[in-house]
Amino acid sequence: MPNAAVIFFSHRAETYDPERTPRTLTKGYAEIVARRIASAIDAPTFQVIPERDYSRDHDACMSQARKDKEEGVFPELLYDMDPIDFKSILLVYPNWFGSCPMPVFTYLSHHSFEGKRVIPVCVHDGKGIGQTEKHLKAALPGARLLKGISTRGKDFPSKETELLSLVREALAAPLPEE
Length: 178
Ligand SMILES: Cc1cc2nc3c(=O)[nH]c(=O)nc-3n(C[C@H](O)[C@H](O)[C@H](O)COP(=O)(O)O)c2cc1C
Fold this sequence. Notes:
about 180 residues; Rossmann fold; 5 helices; about 35% helix; binds flavin mononucleotide
């Protein structure tokens, strides 16, 4: 078992899609991806949950999330988990406006990731990994940030084998320089 944890944020709600045909999911895509990775590599999971959850309504969620981003709000979290015991972190999150959801940055700001291998896994709806790697680099001083992996939520079931093999490769790769 690798000395790794899967840390994720996911918003179980109406999904965004370019055709604007939202549907409510019982589990967010990032959660599905995170839990599959965790079970494949036999790692524990930790879910980042804001105290004040984002609305289940698509448009309300979008405006709340946009406001948090524009105003640089770091939402308070319900729970915390110190990643001190883990050498590698799989950080799974949805692409929100080309970046990570603000609660992810709250979580990262609470802890030191110095010397840890951090593998970003971005779940998106067509726009890929966006600026998230750049923003994570700034938020993770001293961490060994690996090249991110991305998958479109809807496509994940058919891409699962490919994604899991990228995750295993990233866990086995030599640590990059800071
Ligand atoms: C507030 C918000 C902003 C989003 N911004 C983008 C975006 O810029 N690009 C993109 O491809 N998908 C965007 N999406 C879609 C999500 O990244 C995508 O639906 C993802 O699979 C959601 O994961 P989840 O179900 O675990 O929350 C956005 C969704 C939300 C709710």
